Each structure stands twice: as C-alpha cells, then as structure tokens.
Amino acid sequence: MNAHAEQLTIYNSLKGEKEKFVPVNEGFVGLYVCGPTVYSNVHLGNCRSFISFDMVYRYLTHLGYKVRYVRNITDVGHLVGDADEGEDKIARKARLEQLEPMEIVQQYTLDFHSVMDQFNSIPPSIEPTATGHIIEQIEMIKAILDNGFAYESNGSVYFDVEKYNEAHPYGELSGRKIEDLISNTRELDGQDEKRAPLDFALWKNASKEHIMKWPSPWGIGFPGWHLECSAMSTKYLGEQFDIHGGGMDLKFPHHECEIAQGTASNGVSPVRYWMHGNMLTLNGKKMAKSTGNSILPGELFSGDNDIMEKAFDPMVVRFFMMQAHYRSTLDFTSEALVAAEKGYERLMEAMKALNNLKSSGESSQNVKEIIDGFYASMNDDFNAPILVANLFEAVKYINSVNDGKLHITANDLELLKSEMAAFVYDVLGLKSSDAGNNDKLSPVMDLVLDLRQEARTNKDWGTSDKIRDGLAAAGIVVKDGKEGSSWS
To answer: How many CB atoms lie within 10 A of CB 394?
Structure first.
C-alpha cells in the first residue's frame, strides 16, 4: 500500500464534510456508481460523472487498494421522472421504433461503451444490468416486507416511508425533514394504492400492455427504479461498502431511497461515503435538448454542431473536465476548450521532453516536494484542478532542464519520470491523442529534421526557417533545444 494512502480524505455528502478515508475492509475498496439508463445517447453531463469516478477508481488503484468497481446498466423499471406511474422509457422507445426492448438496450449500451472508450475510461470490474438481477430484487423486497417496512397493495409492493422514519431518519442524505416532505406532497385520493404520498414502489403490478414484466410472489410485474442499485450493490459489494457515487441530481430521491432500502433489508446503512458530482452547463446555460442547448460527445469530437467553433479531441475534453473539481459546476464553451487544448498540448510536449531528458549536476528543485504536491492535491477529496496546477509547475522545471537552465540528478529524473507518468496517464487518464499518427509520421519527421539540422549546420537559415514554418502551417511544432530538435 502506498504510504500516501493514509492521508486520503473524501467529502462525504451524508455528513456534509470531508472525512479521512477508512475502508470497510483493509486494503479493499468497494466502489459503486449509478450507470446510464440506456434508452438514448449518453450526454456530456453523464460523461462528466463517469469520467470523475473513473479518476477516483484510478487513484484508489494507484494508492495500492484492490478496488471492485461496480457500475450498473439501467435497462428496466425507469419510469417517467421519479413517479411510480407512467411508461418505462425503454419500453416506450421500443414501441415507437417497433423494436424489442433489448434491441434498444443493446444499441445504446454499445454507444455508451464507445463514448467511454474514446474518453479512455477504464471499464468497471462488474457492469450488472437490472434485468439480469430480477431475482435479487425480489429477494430484497421479501426481506423489507419481513422486517415490516413495506406492504403489498393490489399486486404492487410499496416502501412504507413513515414506518421506516420511526426507526431510522429518512432524508438524512439530502437534508430533508419528513414533515416538510409530507406537507409538500399531494393528498391521496381513494383510488391510490399507496397508504401515504411519500411511499415509493418496490414492485409494480404490470398491465397486460406492459412489455417488460416478470413473475413474482405478488403477481406479474416489474421492479421499481430505486431498487435495482440496492440489490446489485449488495450482491457484489456486501451489505455495507465504501463509496457510492453519482450525479448531484440523484441525491434525492434515488440515493435517499437506496439508503432506506439497504437499511430496511439488512439492518445497516449500506454506504460509508456518498460522493456526488456536479452538473455541466453549456455557454452559461443548463444543457437541455428541448431548448437546443445541448451537444452529444460525438458531435463535439467531430465538430458536427452549431455550438462549438471546431472539433475537439476526446483527450482535450477529458483534460478540460479535470480542470474543475468534481463537486463544482463546469461550463463548456469554445474559448475554454481552446485554452484547454493548448494546455493539454503543452503537457504532452513536456511528457515527451521528460523522456528525453539527461541528468546533470545537482537537482535545482526538490523533486520529492513536487511529487508530494501531486499526492496532497488528490488526497484532498480528489482535487484534480490542483493536481493539474502542480503538474504544470513540474512542466516548468522539465522545460528549464531541457533548455539547460536548470539541472536534475539521475535518481530525481527517474523518480520524476515515474510519478509524472503515473499521475498524467494512470490517474488523470490522459494519453497522447495523436499517438497512432506519430508512429507512422516519426520516420518521415526524422528525415525532415535531419535535413533541417544539416541546413542549420551549414548556416542556411533560410532553408531551416522554411522547413520550420512549413511544418507549423501543417500543425507540426518544431522546438530547438540543447539536445537537438523535437517535434509535436
């Protein structure tokens, strides 16, 4: 285990403050993240959340923890909004497109995986689906019923929120008081199956027209939306696990209901640390398809949109996301992405220069202190923007050593190479966007730079500048250093 692991603190949404991270089981971390509902293309807001927790997963792994990362696929039971009534969104999409629901699920699951792959996100350890865990959901409902926190009504099963609140605080995650929630809900008419407005569905009786339905002890039906995460996290991570993540919009009611379900079925609050990522805005406004103020990842990568001035590489977008804390709002604009692109290219150039550095004399800077700054930033609730700032302090040092202005010992150089690679590639999840093209271009560029060096040796500055300027016009930057010329 990395010695820095003991310094990790996490902002716990349940308590509203940072806490020292102490895993349930020493050396092992259970991480659960609410995954996508696969009935449409994944949008950038979702991507930010998944990329943030990919970074969390990467850093925990870097610290030496054995991490079991579970991210579910919601392929059933997600009704209109958070209501218990309405049409399943996947079933509705299948009906409109005259497809089987699982065709819709497969289509958008593949799209989701493709986008996450372009963002260089590591696949989770386990990616369970709601439809693949109907039995586990039924068994959890049985346990909640047996413990007296749910009731059956006309083939449906509802969670009894007021009964639960007598024994456990409902609303503790979102800071809501049950009295306020009750006063803000509508009065039930005589036809409603629920005993109280706050009660939510664990199992819904299905009509004959409902497409996705399964047999249960209470009749043919389907599980409620909140139940799937509770059932799958319990199966793969245990009755209590370390970290549960998701977007801020899931805090209430989804995550609140997860706490209630886990506690009601197992007798213990299911999660130690609740983490919530904040939203994205686009040009200062909320992203919304209905208003036209939205952009899909593929449209951002290709430039096929009317919002951004150019196309942006997935690695530039990922790097841009790392420049805001996961709990902060992040605004997408062309200007901000162009600035991020320049910063990303500068970082990649420095990484390339670092690999070619030569040691000489005593180190001009305390390399251990630089690296300790990397860990300090990430140990402060995964503070990626501070890490990025610290990395660029290291970039200044690298460039000064490369230009012969500063020095570094052989031991410090190896340490800096190792830790820079770890934090840039392994923790932030960045990679060179043009690595594949460079492999093909390298032999050509070696020849071009040799010809330019020959011109410089002969003091043929006109030819030397012509080659440099011609390459610049083609998007290739040549940098002259003490050890020779390099390109990017």
So the answer is: 23
* Tens-place pLDDT, residues 207-237: 888 889 999 999 999 999 899 999 999 999 9
Give bridge partners of residue 387 from the DSSP assignment.
Answer: none
Kindly report, residue by residue over 28-75, the tens digit of the pLDDT.
999 999 999 998 899 898 999 999 999 999 999 999 999 999 999 999
Angle made by CA atoms 48, 51, 52, in degrees to the nearest 5: 85
Q: Please report the domains of the chain, with CATH numbers, ordered by start residue.
A: 3-277 (3.40.50.620), 281-427 (1.10.730), 437-487 (no CATH)
- Residue 441 is encoded by which pair of tokens? 């271009």
Residue 200 to residue 149: CA distance in whole angstroms: 11
| The predicted structure's pLDDT at residue 81 | 47
Global pTM? 0.88
Instruction: Give the SS3 label for residue 117.
Output: helix
Q: Are residues 157 and 151 in contact, defined by beta-carbon separation less than 8 angstroms? A: yes
399-406 long-range contacts, CB within 8 A, separation 24+: 399/350, 399/353, 400/364, 401/357, 401/364, 402/353, 402/356, 402/357, 402/481, 402/482, 402/483, 403/481, 403/482, 404/481, 404/482, 406/364, 406/365
Distances (CA, A) of 175 to 5, 162, 340: 30, 16, 36
Are 76 and 232 in contact, with CB atoms under 8 Å apart? no
Torsion, CA 364, CA 368, CA 371, CA 375, rounded to 10? -150
CA pair distance 293, 300, nearest whole angstrom? 13
Total residues belonging to the chain: 488
**What gap in Å lies between CA 343 and CA 417, rounded to an integer?**
19
211 close to 101: Cβ distance less than 8 angstroms: yes
Task: Write a three-state SS string for 276-341.
Answer: EECCEEECCEECEHHHCECCCHHHHHHCCCCCCCCCCCHHHHHHHHCCCCCCCCEEECHHHHHHHH
| Closest to 454 in 3D by CA, of 422, 413, 484, 416 | 484
Residue 105 has φ and ψ, to the nearest 5°, of: -60, -50
State how far the alpha carbon of 107 is from the alpha carbons of 35, 113, 156, 291, 363, in Å.
16, 10, 31, 25, 55
Q: Which of 486, 130, 478, 120 is nearest to 315 (CA)?
A: 120
**Rg of the chain's alpha carbons, rounded to an integer?**
27
Q: Which amino acid is at 210?
A: H
Instruction: Please tell me what DSSP assigns to residue 41.
Output: P
- Residue 159: closest CA among 187, 129, 195: 195
Q: Tell me the C-alpha distance between 171 and 252, whole Å.
A: 8
Instruction: Report how far residue 386's alpha carbon sits from residue 370's, in angstroms, rounded to the nearest whole number.
Output: 12
